[in-house]
Amino acid sequence: xxxxxxxxPLEPDVQRxxxxxxxxxxxxxxxxxxxxxxxxxxxxxxxxxxVLKERGALSVGDLAALTATDPSSVSVVVHKxxxxxxxxxxxxxxxxxxxxxxxxxxxxxxxxxxxxxxxQVLLERLARMAPEEVGSLAELLERLAPPPGDGHPxxxxxxxxxxxxxx
Length: 167
Known about the structure:
The chain is mostly helical. Helix content is about 50%, strand content about 5%. It has helices spanning about 10-35, 45-55, 60-65, 70-85, 105-110, 120-125, 130-145, and strands at about 85-90, 100-105.
């Protein structure tokens, strides 16, 4: 006979937190498995294509800033998009040491097949919040999230092969 964990009744705010997290995770999961998405593209790849469609040629650093992601994670996504022929990497005309990522015609077509990525929707929701609310939310989520593990940056949402563990 094993011991049973007996939990006290949950506070209403705990239920609210779980419900909100469930809705957010559901949105992210549906974005990853969404019907009508171009075959073979992850939600992270769609998000990068969308940002490039909206902003034009960008460096990996600029893409990282606009997707609220670490540059190393964006670099992995850009590499996969490049392998699929959806983006090209060219030297910046302003600084030949810096690469710019640009959509190909195929990348533009793929970006037009998808609605606004859920990551963009989440960023827009955060932008509508007061800065102190965002700061409080970040602090509380960091306390709720698992502790950072191996020092790797956090991956993009549903990035293929993501092993990141840092917040």
